[in-house]
Design brief:
376 residues, alpha+beta, four-stranded antiparallel sheet, 4 helices
Length: 376
């Protein structure tokens, strides 16, 4: 009975034991030992390589940089920001063409100058000069007489031309005509317009033209709309506007000169040279700067003449005469809409900036006379 019980217990215990594959266990153990040997061998190789590198650095000659580091694991690093000093741009004088020769500076007047051709024996012609180009852009259809030769004028924007055509009263008044630069033909605008005196036609911007009637009435005429502007703008005399039509220079009450932009007005004074004043009918403003601070003053001729007659610049804030650079008799002074000053002398043309510092010189065309306008 006890033997049977023992036999049954041994059989149950055998069923609960899981069979073990000794071959598989032996293979796994062999692989694990192989990996451990490989790791140990690699570590030993790294130690030997590090020792060799240290020896090479120790015996490297002076004056040479460090030897390149051995290849190793890839490492990503974040470097601190580097402040870069910008390289200054080369000045115009340092610029050079691809061939190595210096680049010529741009002309001091890149726009267009409009001149009245001189002499105008058969037809009065207007020249447009831009750089080295000189072209006739308008011709007065009739031979210029007293009124035509004295009144031909170009708008500050270079779009329009206007003049007074002689009537039959001996050349003291006539008909106001206007045309478009670059196109033939003209339009009759107004009759009985006076053509005597210095600059009888004066532009206020590019569209409005101040004229004087034979009755001494001042009329502001809109050439774009082909109509007279309502009302007389005032009883001032010797009017002259800046090229943009903003600032007016004129003689006010008591024959006192002033400048105004419609919201502010400023009186100034000027006394012309005594040794020359007796030869003229006085002086007047011939051109006004864009900010109204400066006026170019010139003589009023005793006869019909197209000469500008400007000879000085007056600071209207101090009533002092500006010392203009250059030598030689001045024929005209023109303040441009881009804040330059064109001074025409007997010896040539000089261009100044808004502070009257020299910018350069320009050659006057041989076939052209009076400078009528400049358009940038």
């Amino acid at each position: 009975m006890n033997q049977d019980r023992l036999r049954l217990d041994l059989a149950g215990l055998a069923e609960e034991v899981t069979p073990v594959d000794l071959r598989d266990r032996a293979l796994r153990t062999s692989r694990r030992l192989g990996i451990q040997r490989a790791v140990a061998t690699s570590a030993a190789a790294l130690v030997v390589l590090a020792a060799a590198t240290g020896t090479a650095l120790a015996i490297r000659p002076n004056g040479q940089g460090p030897a390149p580091a051995p290849a190793g694991p890839s490492v990503t690093s974040t470097w601190p920001p580097v402040e870069v000093t910008p390289t200054p741009s080369p000045s115009p004088s340092d610029s050079a063409s691809p061939s190595g020769s210096p680049v010529k500076p741009a002309s001091v007047l890149t726009g267009t100058r409009y001149y009245l051709e001189a002499p105008a024996s058969t037809r009065a012609r207007i020249h447009a000069v831009r750089g080295s180009s000189d072209q006739v852009v308008y011709q007065i259809p009739s031979a210029p007489t007293g009124c035509e030769s004295n009144t031909i004028t170009v708008s500050p924007d270079g779009k329009r031309v206007a003049w007074v055509q002689d009537s039959t009263d001996g050349g003291t008044s006539g008909v106001l005509l206007a045309g478009t630069i670059g196109k033939p033909g003209s339009t009759k605008l107004l009759e009985d317009v006076n053509c005597l005196g210095a600059r009888p036609l004066v532009w206020k911007g590019g569209d409005l033209l101040m004229v004087h009637k034979k009755t001494q009435e001042s009329v502001l005429f809109d050439l774009a709309a082909n109509k007279r502007v309502d009302g007389d703008p005032g009883q001032e005399t010797d009017r002259c506007w800046s090229a943009d039509g903003r600032w007016l220079a004129a003689m006010g009450e008591g024959n006192k000169p002033y400048v105004s932009d419609g919201t502010q007005s400023r009186l100034y004074s000027y006394t012309p040279p005594k040794d020359e004043a007796a030869h003229w009918d006085g002086w007047r403003a011939q051109s006004v700067s864009m900010d109204g601070r400066y006026v170019a003053v010139g003589w009023q001729p005793t006869d019909v003449s197209r000469e500008d007659g400007s000879f000085a610049v007056v600071d209207t804030t101090t009533s002092k005469v500006v010392n203009l650079p250059g030598k030689g008799d001045i024929w005209s002074i023109l303040f441009t809409v881009d804040n330059k000053v064109i001074v025409t002398r007997r010896t040539g043309i000089s261009v100044l900036d808004s502070t009257f510092a020299p910018l350069g010189t320009v050659t006057k065309p041989t076939t052209s006379g009076v400078l009528l306008a400049y358009v940038p």
